[in-house]
Structures are given as C-alpha cells and as structure tokens.
Amino acid sequence: MSTNFQIALRFLLFKKRAMLMTLSGIIFGVAFFILTQAQTSGFEQFFIRTILGTDGALRVTDRFQKPVDYKTIKMLDEEEALQVETQRKYIEGIDYPNTLKQAVREFPEVKGVAEVLRGQAEIDSRSRTQDGQIFGVNLNEFLSVSTLGSQIIAGSLENFEKSPQGLLIGSTLALRINVKPGDIVTLSCKGKSQRFSISGLFETGVGDIDKVRIIVHLNAARSLLQRPFGANYLQVSIDDPDRAPAIAERMKAVVQHDVSPWQRREKVWLDVFRALRFSSAITVSTIILVSALGMFNTLAMLVIEKTKEIAILRSFGFSKADVTSIFLWLGGVVIVSGTTLGCLTGALLTWGASNIPLRIRGIFSTDHFVVNWDSSHYIAAVITASVVVFIASYFPARRAARIEPGEIIRGTSS
Q1: pLDDT beyond 50 at 171
Q2: Cβ pair 288, 385 in contact under 8 A
Q3: For the chain, what is the radius of gyration of the CA atoms?
Q4: Which of 140, 220, 301, 405 is the most core-located residue (most Cβ within 10 A)?
Q5: Cα–Cα dist 167/184, whole Å
Q6: Residue 109 DSSP symbol
Q7: What residues make up the domain containing 398?
Q8: What is the total count of domains within the chain?
C-alpha cells in the first residue's frame, strides 16, 4: 500500500460523515440510473418483440410503376432522395405473390415469407355487428413470420387448421360481439356473406389489432373478398431484425416492390421510447451530480482544514504530484466503492421491479414490469459517476498542490 494512499485514507476518515453522505448519493444515483434504463429499454424491447411477432420485420407491398436507378438515388442527398421516393408511382398490391415469394426467399437473411390478403368486412354474431379486418393467410406460412402460435388464449390452431371455414378472432373484438370458440358468426363484404366457425381467440397485446383483426384461410378470404388472385403484401421475417432497413433497400432494388422495414413503420413509437430513455438518464444523473457537488465541497473544506498538514508533507519532500494524487485517491475510493455498491443495488432493484405486477393493454400486453438486463446500462452508469466524481476531486486536488509550505509555516510562526 503506497504512502499517498495511506494518507488519503486518513483524510477520508477525518471527514467520514460527509464522505458517507457523498458515497450514499453515488450508490443510489448509480442504482436508479440502472433501474430506469432497465425499465425504459425493457418496455421498448418488449414492444419491438410484439411488433415483430405481429407484423413481421419486413413488408413487401406495392409494385413500382417505373423502375428506378438506385445507383443514381444513392448519389443524391437525403432531401433529394426523399423527393424522388415521394414522386414515385406505385401499383397497389401484389399481382403474382408466388413468384415474388420465390424471389424474396433467395435472400440469405430471410427466414420466412407469407402472403396476406386483407380487406374490410362486417362480423355479425346475431347479438351485435362490428366492423373488422379480414386477414387471409396460409397458416403454415404465417406461423413462420409471426408469433401467432403463442398468442392463442382460447380454442386452438389445430381446430383452425382442420376447418376450411374456421377463423381466429382478436380477444377485444370477441368481447365486443360476445362470442367464444365454437360459436358461428357471419362475415359480410361487398354484398357477399359467409358463415364461419370461431376456432380460437388470440391476443397480441396491441389494442388496435385485437379489436379488429380476423384471421381466415387464404382461400376463404379470396372467396369472400372476391379476389381470386393477388395479395396485399408479403410479411417477411429475417434472422437479424436490426438490419431490416439495409435488407429492405437491397430487396427493393431486386423485386421492384416497396419494402417497408419495421423501424420505418414504428418510427413514432421508437422515437418516444428513445426520448423517455434519454430524459430518464438525465433526470437520474442529477442525483450523481448533486452528490459530486457535495464531495467537491467536502474536499474543498478538507484542503482548507488540512493546509498545515499539507505544508508539512511538502516540507518533508512530497511533490505537488504527490499531493494531487492523495486527493485523487480520495475520489478513487469513492468512485470504486460507490459504483460497485451502486451496481449491486441497481441489479437488486431491477430484479425486484421485474416481479411487480402491472397489467398493461395497449401498444403491447404484459402483466408485470418488463426489464432489460443489459451490461451497457451498468457501463454507462459507472462512466457517468466516474467522470463526475473525478472532476469534483480534481479541482480541490490542484488547489492543494499549489500550497507552498514556506508561506504556510511563516504565517503560522508569525
């Protein structure tokens, strides 16, 4: 143990009450920083998983009316490229879904592709009529691009698969029209009506989906919507959803259809989560800042009270660098102790929060607090606390190093 470190510990014990208050502030600042980041990023990640499991990572939709030279677009700036995109004309829907599916499957990142035929319809349960959206799908294909299998809360996919006139209905819509699995309903569209049996209820957790979505077999949807061929879009799952924008651009250039990544479709909510995460980090960081200001004040007072001792150390041969290192050691002890205990406390609080019951139904569905265990939260908290405490320690340390022993001793003797 170095002499400078031993002296730093003695100075630390001299102001132990003030240092304990500072240390407590650092511990709780780091802990709450970790907790808030775990919560906000946890809900964001849960929302992303919900969206990917419901609407897929990519959506291949309308065909370009005129081919576009992508090499030329890449040479334009962002504003000019956006103008080209908005002026492009599209032909709505997909005319040859089977051919397009084969082309999309050629991309190595693609895990699954499913065509979706969508249309508006009325669902009549005899007790009530409600507007809804029909989604005609091939079940096996759709299960490869969604988490429908884990969203069934009543009935079963087996019943749906076996029944050509079966349907799956959102839980909120089922509640509104008062139906359950096994009941018979009538779907009406463009003057045509068909009777269906409810095979199961699903709950995605996204309110706008669960109150309107009706899933039927693709052939049944073609008959009801009177569309013997074509589809509205292809839903695509990929191995790395974070790379969806780059893959979408490549795919768009090859298939000559618009390809929408999930980041573009959910940009508003992603921006909201990002803003919440940033604002919570700033708010909680004030706890660390206040604690650091307290430490600055404590060290500044320590320099004043220990002026004579510092002068004696200088007269014994301690250099300015030695004196500076003594006070930086004080900050180092607080940083190491505060961040270590803060990370442990943050992990404990995060675990406790994850077990708090909380029922949420809206943009996603959960019955408890959702947290994200991410090492980057701990690293960010440690870096933030370390920088602030180092700055709070550095300036008193420089002031202490500037003390000249001769002046202090002559002032004392006089």
Answers
A1: yes
A2: yes
A3: 32
A4: 220
A5: 10
A6: T
A7: 3-51+269-407
A8: 2
Q: Residue 145 domain-assigned?
A: yes
Strand-pairing partners, residue 125, are none
End-to-end, the C-alpha distance of the chain in Å comes to: 37
Q: Pull the structure tokens for residue 122.
A: 């009325």
Q: CA 18, CA 144: separation in Å to the nearest integer?
A: 60
Q: Are 238 and 262 in contact (CB under 8 A)?
A: no
- 178-188 burial, b at 16+ Cβ within 10 Å, e below that, comes to ebebeeebebe
Average pLDDT value over all residues in the chain? 83
Q: Decide: helix, strand or coil at residue 122.
A: strand
Tell me: do 37 and 128 sit in the same domain: no
Beta-carbon-side half-sphere exposure of residue 339 (alpha carbons within 13 Å) = 20
At 116-145, the pLDDT tens digits run 999 999 999 888 899 999 999 999 999 999
pLDDT of residue 349: 92
> Tokens at residue 190, please?
């463009």
Q: How far apart are CA 100 and CA 58, in angstroms?
A: 14
Question: Under DSSP, is residue 359 helix (H, G, I), strand (E, B) or coil?
Answer: strand
Same domain, 274 and 216: no
SS3 96: coil
Q: Say yes or no: 31 and 143 in one domain.
A: no
- Short-list 101, 215, 106, 97, CA closest to 155: 215
